[in-house]
Write a structure and sequence with these properties.
Helix content is about 60%, strand content about 5%. The protein is built from 13 helices and 3 strands. About 25% of the residues are buried.
Length: about 300
């Protein structure tokens, strides 16, 4: 089997399915890594060989989640070879190969940490982009890809186009997010044919759209300045936690965050949930009153 030709056709297949460029790139990088490592033809790979590959990845100190990403890439490629190219081949990746992942909770920031972080921000651009992450629950790629035509300041809305999973959604601007964004747009340098909102402000790339990695570097810089362990995604987690504690419905939070499943959103119920805390103490007061009443009856 001509492996190079199959991978090229697989790439075209993913494009026809409208898979995002980032996902395609990750799939192909994972396949390249596996093809270079494996010492037998792809059609002769067995589940034992996959087990050896897992040991190889673990030996490189990769996290279980990363190992599972590699395994998923291999599994999807073999499924393609079997279903789309009609090659009589057995998928060597078994369910038992998938590593069990710890069910970690989303990390959010406390109010004092948020205040400390935002006090270190410099310039209208950074203030606006990080406020959008916090108040609108935007992912870093959604901020980077935000276009001027997707902003409606009068209606206080942002149209998030081609978010994760190629899904569109509408989010809303809080008062402070509206103020920060409007202030940045007033000082934003008008750039010819550049529709992206957030632009590079220094260096030879001035006027070009700010990349995902560029935003992440700004976050890393401010995290060092504030001496906080924080990432862009922590702001999104914080928004969800704050809304839950303000008694927002889970379905509302799900829509705003763009989650496919309500189960993903329910993870926030397991962390510092003030609603659960209030419900607990309210119920306990009722229980204690009933207990006290029963005790009086027994004493009589």
């Amino acid at each position: 089997m001509a492996m190079t030709d199959s991978i090229i056709r697989y790439r075209r297949f993913l494009k026809r399915r409208n898979v995002s460029p980032n996902t395609i790139r990750n799939y192909l990088c994972g396949l390249k890594h596996f093809v270079i490592w494996v010492d037998v033809p792809v059609e002769q790979v067995t589940h034992r060989k996959i087990s050896e590959y897992i040991d190889h990845l673990i030996g490189k100190r990769l996290r279980p989640k990363t190992v599972n990403c590699y395994l998923n890439t291999i599994c999807q490629f073999y499924h393609y070879l079997s279903e789309e190219e009609g090659i009589p081949i057995v998928n060597p990746v078994r369910k038992a190969n998938i590593m069990k992942l710890p069910r970690s909770l989303p990390r959010h920031l406390k109010e004092e940490q948020l205040e400390f972080f935002f006090n270190h921000l410099k310039g209208c651009r950074d203030q606006a982009l990080f406020t959008l992450m916090l108040r609108c629950g935007l992912r870093v790629e959604e901020v980077a890809h935000l276009s001027l035509g997707n902003i409606d300041l009068k209606r206080r809305t942002l149209f998030i186009q081609d978010g994760k999973g190629a899904k569109d959604r509408m989010v809303y601007l809080s008062q402070d997010a509206l103020r920060a964004l409007a202030q940045y747009l007033r000082v934003r340098r008008p750039a010819l044919k550049v529709k992206k909102v957030f632009l590079v402000e220094k260096g030879p790339m001035t006027g070009h759209p700010l990349s995902i990695r560029g935003i992440q570097k700004r976050m890393e810089y401010y995290a060092r300045q504030a001496r906080l362990r924080i990432s862009c995604h922590h702001l999104r987690h914080t928004m969800a936690t704050q809304m839950l504690n303000a008694d927002a419905d889970l379905s509302t939070i799900q829509d705003l965050l763009g989650h496919n499943s309500i189960r993903t959103t329910q993870r926030y119920c397991r962390i510092s949930n003030l609603k659960v805390q209030r419900d607990y103490f309210k119920a306990m007061e009722v229980i204690m009153q009933r207990t006290a009443g029963n005790q009086i009856i027994l004493d009589q």
